[in-house]
Amino acid sequence: MLKTPVMLLVLCLVGAAEALYKQWIPDTNYENKTNWDKGDVPCGNDIVQFSAQRQVSVFVETSHAVQEMRMPLDGEFILNSGAGFYVLAGPEPGCSQGITTKFKDSDTLQWFNPALWQAAASLGDLQGGNSLFAVHEESVPCQYDDVVFKALSSFRVDTSSSQSSIPVKTVSVQGKVFDSGSEFSQYLSSGSGRLQFHGSAAVTVGNPGCEDPSGCECRNSVNHQQICSSVTCESLNCKTPLQPVGHCCQVCGAILTIQYAAGFNLQTYRQRIYHLFLIQSKYKSVQLGMSKILKPQRLMGMIPFGASSMIQVVIMDEEQGEISEALAFEIVNDARTHGSNLGITEAEFQASSGGSSDQPGGTAGLVVGILFGVLFMIVLVLILVLVRKGIIQMPLMPSLRRLKRSSNNEELGGPLDHGFDNPMFDKPNMLPDIPGLYETNTNSISMTQTGVYFVNPVFDERETDFNA
Ligand SMILES: *[C@@H]1O[C@H](CO)[C@@H](O)[C@H](O)[C@H]1NC(C)=O
């Protein structure tokens, strides 16, 4: 048996976006202590009470002694073979007399609550009871996921949503896998289906799985508000908490964004990160989640203009994010060195400790470029205005000056001050007559035994010889 941290790491990596099982955690089983108000399954002297108004589907695995049972108006018992209820002739020893035990209300459990789902790459992992790390939007079933409701159990889930349907690949109930839309909608209108699924949206199956080797976006952002309404964020104490795409809360750690090209394989890349870095003991406290996301693009950090697909890697640790930053740095270096083989065109990170990968020509460069562009335009316009008002004389712009001159002539009927004439620019045919000024003079850099010196062709060569 692997130790828990190792197990967690392995599971973090096998979490392929391609085929993920999402299992609903709560159940409405008679035998589950958490379903009873006194925290224990009723014993033979108890009065068992189901709220009359609540609809419920209860799975009963074995047989139980009860003293009295008050049934709901609309509900069902799903009895396992050999399961049932009986009444004892006398009081059961060790069970206090005449206590009413109520079955808890399960109406409030929502499909879009990320805490109520458990993810695994295979059914075997689900049975092992271990979970993957995922951002909140990816913790609830994605469109290409297989949804599992535990066999030998029943449940009640509120599917209320702002959308009219919740598309998934398959749904499995009581061990039966539904992959055809019509068959599942038939189940939903059956007695059990009606009691198990309630709420405004209909779960629909038959959505295609993820066929793209580079991964698929979960596309749960349409339900972001719904998902985050049941999440409470903890307070953080790192310097600059980060906001992963698809997560309801900020985190301490590091976020990498990876731009991919043809040939990128998400599953292979996950394995690479695991074998290169995560197995190292210094990263044993690290939690890592990797998925394809749609990242909203913003011009100059403010104006939104569309979204683009990229790979997001969220790294968290038990410290203040330093270990995550170190790992992020190693991953970025690896991506930049082996990017062409991996199908990675760009990788960068932000860390909550304040650090980031310096990415020349990245967004920062773009912003600076745009800022300088805007500044340049403003200065240019200002100069033009000043020139037109005659505040500045502009010998370098003959056409403008001529324009000004001719307008002056028209308005005032005579030539005014022309400024000074620049012989070089007013008479273009003169330009080639100045030798060496606009041609590249191959002799302008000379090498002597004492050193290299530069010759400005405008000056006399004899004057600028530093050896003279
Ligand atoms: C009982 O229900 C709780 C909460 O719904 C769940 O976490 C737990 O796994 C259930 N127990 C069993 C044995 O299934």
Automatic annotation (TrEMBL):
It holds the Pfam family Amnionless. The chain crosses the membrane at residues 366-387. One of its GO terms (cellular component) is apical plasma membrane. Its main location: membrane. Keywords: Cell membrane, Membrane, Protein transport, Signal, Transmembrane, Transmembrane helix, Transport. Residues 1-19 form the signal peptide. It is a single-pass type I membrane protein. GO terms for biological process: protein transport; receptor-mediated endocytosis. InterPro entries: AMN. It is found in: Cell membrane. PANTHER family: AMNIONLESS (PTHR14995), PROTEIN AMNIONLESS (PTHR14995:SF2). This is Protein amnionless. It comes from Echeneis naucrates. The lineage of its organism: Eukaryota, Metazoa, Chordata, Craniata, Vertebrata.
